[in-house]
Write a structure and sequence with these properties.
- With about 650 residues, the chain is α/β, with parallel strands linked by helices.
- It folds into three domains: about 150 residues, no CATH class; about 120 residues, 3-Layer(aba) Sandwich (Rossmann fold); about 270 residues, 3-Layer(aba) Sandwich (Rossmann fold), CATH 3.40.50.
- The chain contains 22 helices and 22 strands.
- It has a nine-stranded mixed sheet, sandwiched between helices.
- Strand 12, helix 17 and strand 13 form a beta-alpha-beta unit.
- Helix 2 packs across helix 5, helix 16 packs across helix 21 and helix 17 packs antiparallel against helix 21.
- The longest helix is centred in the first third of the chain and has 32 residues.
- The protein is elongated, with a radius of gyration of 35 Å.
- About 40% of the residues are buried.
Length: about 650
Amino acid sequence: MITLKRFLSFLFSRIEKTPFLPKWIIFGLDIFIVFVAFTVSYLICSSLTNAAYNVKAYIVKSALCLIVTGGFFFAFKTYQGIIRYSGFKDALRVFAALLCTTIVLIIVNTVVGAFNTHFIIMPNTGFFINFILAFTSVFLCKMSIRLLFDYAKTNDPEKNKKVNVLTYRVNPANVGLVRLINHSKTLKYKGIGFICPEASVANKRIASLPVYHINDVFQNEKILAQFHAIVINPKEIERSEKQLLLDLCIKHGKSLLSTPPMEDWSGETNELKKLKKVKIEDLLQRIPIEIDIESIAKNLKCKTLMITGAAGSIGSEIVRQVSKFDVGSLLICDIAESPLHEISMEMFDKYPHIQCQSIIADVRNHDVMEHIFKTYKPNLVYHAAAYKHVPLMETHPSEAIHTNVVGTKIVADLAVQYNAEVFIMISTDKAVNPSNVMGASKRIAEMYVQSLFKKLKEEEKGGQPVTRFITTRFGNVLGSNGSVIPRFEKQINRGGPVTVTHHDIYRYFMTISEACRLVLDAGNFGKGGEVFVFDMGEPVKIRDMAEKMIRLAGLVPNVDINIVYSGLRPGEKLYEELLYDDETVIPTHNPKIKIGSVKEYDHEDVKESIATLLKMTKTCTPKQIVEQMEKIVPEFVSQNPAYSK
């Protein structure tokens, strides 16, 4: 026996799956409503004036009304809208069409009445009655159909299988997101409301959905029972809010989901299929840093840019970001063939208008690098080529010298020789009070470019511009090749254990995109000789990161996945620093960028020290090389037992 509930479920499912009505049906429905409205108006006027009712005259007059109305419906395209999505703009079109119809009919009525009062359509008051009735009826009909579809969606049993979600924060972007989610036929989510941290917005309704205060959500059992997940845009809220939401969701058994960037939201929500569970990268992201895009675009316009290490994590992101500007040409250099090919293909696909030259080149090879400078004469050089992995450089200090020090010297000297405007060096927080070979090698490279600029300024003649040497210093970047997060993900996926070097180890983290935006900004306003230090936010305890990543995978730390402490690796510190103890910082126009007041060195002394170091890489032991590095960088105290004195 078919119950009423089953019948209604079947009916609503059929309504929800009904295809869009053809335009001629919508047009015919509107004309029929206008015909009924005219008939009612005509009868009202006839009864008020006690006029004799003439069927033939009524047919002629109603036909005239429908012809004029139909013409304006065509002119304003009132039939093109999809009824189930009717809104204010559709109502405005109908209003304009009927208003024009009324004006035309009144004019016709007045002109005809001037010649013969027996031929007037009806008193002018009747046209206003007709306008009100017709517009109200057409509008109510469209809204009723829309409400019917919305109600059918809400009560469709298939729809009810979707996951109820609350969206964090009320703003136009999130309201639009909820609408896209609820109109999507492919997403498995259904937006049922919003969460806000502001008491002034709570307990209101936005887009017919309730707005809850965050405290009410997690303290009210009725609200908790209504939803399964919270949706956030990780780029719109601070780290502390993300951490709070994650902790609350874990405590109450809810999921935390993140949206793709707003620019990826398409009308059919294809990109919204990427609505996914929050990852640790989302939690560590901060609100995007504002930089002077217009000024950067102006300074890069029609310039030739050279990026060394262009296939690496930082280098490739710099390539992507500068490609958004009207640059003259790009020289992307790297020694790694396959990654360079990948970024080349990406450039070809996404930025075909950019003149991009891919060059396999080793920054340690002076002849090859000089050929590049001589051929292309780059205006700006972004020097990102470097060896960065601490354990590998501990066992290969000579390679760190050749790439990080000598490679930097070669590119810097050529930038001066071929009159490059700017040389931006990508350094690291490990260069501060270095405890390992990698950090010390980057500090020596910093010393060289800073002393080189000092020398150029001292020898400056006749106001001729010199190459501006700028150093940028920041910590770990999220998701970079070989970084801790991808490693933890692999360990979790294979069932653990997750290995952390030390219980109390801290690190600073920044997204690759964020770091590169700051590099562009620093390169834009830097005068030369500065060491720019980026605001990395609060340091993150690696143990806490590992625990959160395990929980985000739906597992319990040290129950489902064990955390094992392997001990500090040779040369590794518990925490990194961005400045020496005796260094001070100078604020800039960008609150996220500071200028470090670093110790200056004589160029000839640094140059001689590097030459000595280079000779030692050919004949001396790793320990002797490290000892020489400690002489060049007094703050360098190796934490590697193999090199301890």
